[in-house]
Design brief:
2 domains; three-stranded antiparallel β-sheet; 206 residues; 8 helices; Arc Repressor Mutant, subunit A
Length: 206
């Protein structure tokens, strides 16, 4: 039997060694995971969080999106739902994008996120944007996760879990407008709604 030293001394042995080392480095640095393991039709729900945390995946780095719009969506996910599950974060992304598609709201992500009913504090559609505090994320892991969720949502890998909701509120409050809405889902600490047909033209609430 030929020794390992003599094997690696041959051109074929050196090629095999280089190929093996290169493959190991590629998998270790990129975090690449074969797509078959995470195909949307096959992966169980328990793997969703794991998939969303693949920050260095080839797919996420090659998405072509407007960086300012992506940042606005990621900031909204971060500030509105960073303590929520993946589904809770996707729900906020869903409401944001549902508003972009609705003629009652601005037609850009940043326009929706920064939408304000007045110039006063706490009068924005999403309160974090005009609460008078800094909007710079402080929790690095949560911020990276919010950016990745935004990328995956905009890429169409995940979809809206709220059944086309346009509004939501925390489950520990009871706003007066909620009874005029059609409740579509409760995900985490948020309850989601879309307007009744007769109310659609009247309401523009968060």
């Amino acid at each position: 039997m030929r020794s390992m030293t003599s094997l690696t001394a041959t051109p074929l042995g050196r090629l095999l060694t280089i190929t093996t080392v290169s493959l190991c480095l590629f998998l270790g640095v990129t975090g690449f995971i074969p797509w078959d393991e995470y195909h949307q039709d096959k992966r169980p729900a328990s793997q969703a969080d794991s998939f969303a945390r693949q920050y260095n995946s080839i797919t996420s780095h090659n998405l072509v999106v407007d960086t300012s719009e992506l940042r606005c969506l990621a900031l909204n996910i971060y500030w509105e739902s960073r303590s929520e599950s993946l589904n809770g974060q996707l729900a906020v992304a869903g409401v944001t994008m549902n508003r972009v598609a609705n003629k009652k709201f601005p037609d850009t992500i940043c326009g929706v996120v920064k939408h304000s009913r007045s110039a006063r504090l706490h009068r924005c559609q999403f309160s974090w944007y005009c609460d008078g505090k800094t909007d710079t994320p402080k929790e690095l892991e949560a911020w990276r996760n919010a950016q990745q969720v935004a990328r995956l949502y905009l890429a169409g890998i995940y979809t809206d879990p709220t059944s086309n909701a346009l509004w939501y509120h925390a489950d520990y409050v009871n706003p007066s407008w909620a009874h005029k809405m059609t409740r579509t889902a409760k995900i985490g600490r948020h309850i989601f709604y879309r307007a009744l047909v007769r109310e659609t033209a009247k309401l523009n609430l968060n």
